[in-house]
Amino acid sequence: PSYEETGVTEALIKDKALASLTDVETAAPSGAFENNACKPYEDGISYLAPLFFEAEGLLYNKELLSNNGFSVPQTWDDFIKIAEGCKNKKFEFFTYAGAEPDEFVNIFAAAVAPVIGTEETNKLLDCEEETWANENVKTFAEKIGKITKLVVSGSSTKSREEVLDCLKDEKALFVSGSTEDLEELNKDGEKYALCPYPALSGNTVQTVSFSEMYIPVEAKEQELAKKFMMFLYGEKVTGLAAEMLGKTSVGTSSVFAAEFAVKSAANATLSDEFCGLVVDIFKSNIKADEFADKMIEYIKEY
Hints:
Helices cover about 40% and strands about 15% of the residues. With about 300 residues, it is of the alpha/beta class. About 10% of the residues have low confidence.
């Protein structure tokens, strides 16, 4: 995948040294290639193929949620209402991994995509300057601002492992996580569940991450490689994936349905700066209405 440590894949992408996968695209689930990770250039051609899909969202303790009269949030207004309902509880409603805050890219994408669409969301993730003046960016920051004092103390320095510990110790009702985290949490039962991140309005979208596979342009057995890729999209393999994902509350339909799958590219420009600003809102270091302006400043400097 593009994020692997050697940097080989990233270098091949940069050098435009990958073979076209247009043939392979026809064998994949509808819309699976419709994202910036698979189409890294502006020519509309796919050069990387998605594999090992993993859904991301909010992990929660099912009994803790229902026993306190809460239901799964669909919108950020729902999320904030739950946060306020937790004020007098023995647990906080949310915590985040402030030491590794890349989760906020997906939280943001899932919030705005139902309102502005996938194409505009991709432009935001690619940091096209004019898109950051969108009113929904400010709205997202304002929603974050409403829960800054309602998260677990010390969230800004927590690791992912510490965040999951807060969930297991019933110190937090919701944390960010994935189907892989859910499988680990439920290895001895079905205590936990995973739901999509809340949207600003409208239907929720299922944020999906995946590894990519590719064929170097100088590969000698390109046609054979394409056949193997197509096999990986066949019934045998996808059936196994469905069986495994069926153990979660997410289900395969939300993972493979293109219109509900938003991929925030791992190499999205200035993602570190973006996530740092979200943490700054939580820490009250900046105000919500400064958020978009500061991102535009980063983009101009970049």
